[in-house]
Design brief:
Elements: H1 2-20, H2 23-46, H3 62-93, H4 96-101, H5 106-112, H6 115-135, H7 145-173, H8 178-189, H9 201-207, H10 212-223, H11 233-264
Helix pairs in contact: 2-3, 3-5, 3-6, 3-7, 3-8, 3-10, 7-10, 7-11, 10-11
């Protein structure tokens, strides 16, 4: 386990120095981040919170609601798309074979691909919340930070199997990763931009059968409502259930895809 996190740290350092060399790209990403903040701040001025069922639990503040959704969905995007994206990039660069020849399991390497993305998501979340507080009149209660971090960790574990499944698709089919489509769908029905209480009853129930909804509901309860872990046990149980069911399936699919790609000699094809 120590070796696993040690290599994870090395992947983070490698990606940091690589991305830091493209300073203009960093600036443009910051511009995009603040543009999104400004956009949703003014959209919040058009929204009548009392007319939206579900916002009362979050201070009747649409800007705070959507800010938390956007900030934390960045983590989920990384975990769902990072493994497949990293594999795809190494395939196109011709560097995947060198990883395959290393003693490290390819499954571990696909997880290490998320290192830079999670670091960047953390920086972005900090910027979102700090800019919201200093520039956009965001008000946050005193919330238990440990509870938020624990719930975020449980959420990432629930999303990781989807990222592994995406990597399995890339190993076999090279392009056309259906996990990207799932991410868009889950983001829509998972309450990133508006409460799921706006949906019909049947869609509200369906929204709980994917990890976005319990993850964001729990994080909003903690960050915006100051809830403790004992008050989000339902969300924690759901997320843990997703992990326990999907993780073994995703690992099995990945190993099957890896064996097929090796037998076909297509690991270096893209």
């Amino acid at each position: 386990m120590k070796n696993f996190f040690g290599k994870y740290w090395l992947f983070l350092k490698m990606a940091f120095f690589y991305n830091a060399s493209y300073k203009f790209h960093v600036v443009m990403e910051l511009v995009g981040l603040f543009s999104q903040l400004i956009l949703f701040y003014f959209i919040s001025k058009l929204v009548s919170p009392e007319k939206i069922p579900g916002l009362a639990a979050y201070q009747n503040d649409y800007f705070a609601f959507v800010l938390v959704g956007i900030a934390f969905s960045g983590y989920f995007a990384v975990v769902m798309g990072g493994p497949a994206g990293g594999l795809r990039e190494d395939m196109s660069l011709g560097t995947l074979e060198s990883f395959v020849l290393s003693p490290e399991p390819l499954l571990f390497i696909t997880i290490w691909y998320t290192a830079w993305g999670l670091f960047k998501a953390t920086v972005n979340t900090f910027i979102y919340l700090l800019a919201g507080l200093l520039m956009f009149n965001l008000t946050l209660p005193s919330f238990p930070v440990f509870s938020a971090l624990f719930l975020l960790f449980i959420s990432l574990l629930a999303f990781l199997p989807l990222g592994i499944l995406g990597a399995a698709f890339v190993l076999v089919f090279k392009q056309g990763n259906p996990i990207n489509l799932l991410y868009t769908l889950f983001k829509f029905i998972g309450g990133v931009y508006f409460p799921i209480t706006l949906f019909p009853d049947w869609l509200q129930k369906l929204a709980w059968f994917q990890p976005f909804t319990p993850a964001l509901e729990g994080l909003r309860k903690v960050v915006l409502g100051g809830a403790s872990l004992s008050q989000v046990t339902f969300e924690i149980k759901l997320l843990t259930g997703f992990t326990l069911v999907l993780f073994p399936v995703s690992v099995w699919c990945f190993q099957l895809a890896y064996r097929r790609a090796r037998l076909a000699g297509s690991l270096s094809h893209y």
